[in-house]
Design goal:
The chain has 187 residues and is of the alpha+beta class. Helices cover 37% and strands 25% of the residues. The chain has two domains: 38 residues, GTP cyclohydrolase I, N-terminal domain (GTP Cyclohydrolase I, Chain A, domain 1); 134 residues, 2-Layer Sandwich (GTP Cyclohydrolase I, domain 2), CATH 3.30.1130.10. The structure holds guanosine-5'-triphosphate and zinc ion.
């Protein structure tokens, strides 16, 4: 099912009413329509399968680390539907010549982030998709993010950062390889 724009519009009108605003006030007249369009965009990952990015592989004989770091992403926390955002770092060691276009790693992060999410789930979903589709020697995904539900409301800790990692394959056993990835990500 695609995004139901009409339903979002009705819901936004109700929220405006519920917080004590007048949905017929000139300034907010088009707000339900704008919010519906925005949600369709920020949740577009609901209707896209990240596996598709790993269908086309280049047959390249490189069995050493590939790291794409500092991939910016925006997501929406599934508890409060407010943004969390930051950077993702994706490393893998190809096996059997199955190397993918670098942009596909960033596209996978984007697609997975554009759902009502948990930071942990973005991290593990991207790692597991790469393991499943490319069968590499190993994968490390690190995500660092600031959660607006922890800054603008609730516990109110601006500047606090959450870092999550998913470590798969050879990186689980090989401490030196793991240390190399983490140091490259930090550098
Ligand atoms: N593990 C995890 N927790 C998250 C993430 N995003 C938001 N949260 C947390 O989800 C929790 C929801 O807690 P609840 O107690 O159900 O909701 P709440 O009363 O609004 O919580 P407070 O934020 O503490 O005011 C909060 O502790 C948030 O910080 C995430 O990506 N991963
Ligand atoms: Zn939240």
């Amino acid at each position: 099912m695609n995004v139901d724009l009409d339903k979002i519009q009705q819901a936004v009108r109700m929220i405006l009413e519920a917080v004590g605003d007048d949905p017929n006030r000139e300034g907010v007249l088009d707000t339900p329509k704008r919010v519906a369009k925005m949600y369709a965009e920020v949740f577009e990952g609901m209707h896209i399968d990240e596996d598709q990015y790993f269908e086309t592989v280049f047959s390249e004989d490189h069995e050493e680390m590939v790291l794409v770091k500092d991939i910016p992403f925006y997501s929406m926390c599934e508890h409060h539907l407010v943004p969390f955002f930051g950077k993702a770092h994706v490393a893998y060691v190809p096996r059997g010549g199955r190397v993918v276009g670098l942009s596909k790693l960033a596209r996978a992060v984007d697609t997975v982030a554009k759902r009502p999410q948990l930071q942990e789930r973005i991290t593990s979903t991207v790692a597991d998709a790469i393991m499943r589709k490319l069968d590499p020697h190993g994968v490390v995904v690190v995500v660092e993010a600031e959660h607006m539900c922890m800054t603008m409301r609730g516990v109110k800790k601006p500047g606090s950062k959450t870092i999550t990692s998913a470590v798969r394959g050879m990186f689980e056993k090989d401490a030196a390889a793991r240390a190399e990835v983490f140091s490259l990500i930090r550098s």
